[in-house]
Amino acid sequence: ATQKLLLLPGDGIGVEVMAEVKRLIAFLNKTGLTAFETEEDLVGGAAYDAHGKAISDAAMGLAQAADAVMFGAVGGPKWADVPYAARPEAGLLRLRKDLGLFANLRPAVCYPALADASSLKRELVEGLDIMIVRELTGGVYFGEPKEIVTLENGEKRAVDTQVYTTHEIERIARVAFDLAKVRGNLVHSSEKHNVMKSGVLWKQVVTAVHKAEYPEVKLEHILADNCGMQLVRTPKQFDVIVCDNLFGDMLSDVAAMLTGSLGMLPSASLGATDPTTGKRKAMYEPVHGSAPDIAGRGLANPIATLASFGMALRYSFGLAEAADRLDAAIAAALDEGLRTKDIASAGQNAVSTSEMGSAVLKA
Ligand code: NAI
Ligand code: MG
């Protein structure tokens, strides 16, 4: 059966790193391992230039119909003054919202060849492989009321509201437990039930889902502040960490720094599974942006995007072995000493985006 993939390269280096994914797809299709049918459309500033909005309804239709979306990056100084509703980031936000992508997966993997680029000592991070599962559509970033009001005495009062329902916690917990089953079989659920009602409910619901559906997976509860501390103390104790939107935002950035460069970090965002088709909406993208400072010069590191495609192979297309081989190929290219500028050490010769892509492809 064909597998439908929508490519949205976007702006800046998004276009350059996506080109390496296209070469990989062409190779995989040629081997007969996959039968990807790809479509490509505009998003971000490129879509604004063509249609006056950050993503067209036609492109949204393609995203809805695809088995997975590969997203590059959007934005750049060229679009600094476009109307707010049409700013490049609006394309990304609409994709997340309309596809219902409630689970954000941010792996933090430390390739041995790059262990010295971590903010921690080599022995603490070498071989690190953590998955942070962040709830993406609820919590304090979206809860109502959300306002700044002026009080009678002239003082101002700002309000953000943390809201979570049983359903929202159950579905993110299932994503975490399902991942743990195919990884290290361990979930840390991170919240602050000591000071937050949403933390109390979070802990109760995760415990109930665990007991009823995943008793074979090991579950630990950890307060979010302690989780931050443990991540920089002994990060290899973790396998999967599940947390709300706010704590996940912070913990995933902490974990990112354990691994080295922004150019190495992939991500996935997953939606609900359709009960009739068994399929789930998903979008895969590098964590980095469009890097206007290096765009158009073949300097970008394609690994974050290639690894994001690896997550698509694993989580949308059931091709775990191919995904493992892609990860091994990335590690092999790094072991050979190939470095793009962002991960090269001082004085080291850097390779181009396509040279790195070729080395991964060859491996
Ligand atoms: P950025 O991630 O684009 O760049 C930050 C720094 O990291 C730059 O020095 C850049 O050269 C470097 N860098 C990033 N990715 C790299 C790669 N693959 N290889 C080598 N070096 C890399 O973030 P910045 O500069 O804050 O934002 C630039 C534009 O990107 C802005 O318009 C911003 O709004 C947008 N952006 C878009 C995102 C997305 O599409 N998901 C995420 C973050 C920013
Ligand atoms: Mg962040």
UniProtKB/TrEMBL annotation:
Domain of life of the source: Bacteria
Reaction it catalyzes: (2R,3S)-3-isopropylmalate + NAD(+) = 4-methyl-2-oxopentanoate + CO2 + NADH
Pathway as given in its UniProt record: Amino-acid biosynthesis; L-leucine biosynthesis; L-leucine from 3-methyl-2-oxobutanoate: step 3/4
EC class of the enzyme, as a word: oxidoreductase
Keyword Manganese annotated: yes
Protein residues bound to Mg(2+): 225, 249, 253
UniProt GO MF annotations: 3-isopropylmalate dehydrogenase activity
Site (Important for catalysis): 141, 192
UniProt KW keywords: Amino-acid biosynthesis, Branched-chain amino acid biosynthesis, Cytoplasm, Leucine biosynthesis, Magnesium, Manganese, Metal-binding, NAD, Oxidoreductase
Positions contributing to NAD(+) binding: 76-89, 289-301
Start and end residues of each Isopropylmalate dehydrogenase-like domain: 4-360
Manganese keyword on record: yes
EC number in record: 1.1.1.85
Major place of residence: cytoplasm
Named cofactor requirement(s): Mg(2+); Mn(2+)
Subcellular location field: Cytoplasm
Residues involved in substrate binding: 96, 106, 134, 225
The record's free-text note on cofactor binding: Binds 1 Mg(2+) or Mn(2+) ion per subunit.
NCBIfam families xrefs: leuB
Described function: Catalyzes the oxidation of 3-carboxy-2-hydroxy-4-methylpentanoate (3-isopropylmalate) to 3-carboxy-4-methyl-2-oxopentanoate. The product decarboxylates to 4-methyl-2 oxopentanoate.
Record family assignment: Belongs to the isocitrate and isopropylmalate dehydrogenases family. LeuB type 1 subfamily.
Family matches, as HAMAP family: LeuB_type1 (MF_01033)
Quaternary structure annotation from Swiss-Prot or TrEMBL: Homodimer.
This protein's name: 3-isopropylmalate dehydrogenase
Organism of derivation: Labrys monachus
Organism ancestry: Bacteria, Pseudomonadati, Pseudomonadota, Alphaproteobacteria, Hyphomicrobiales
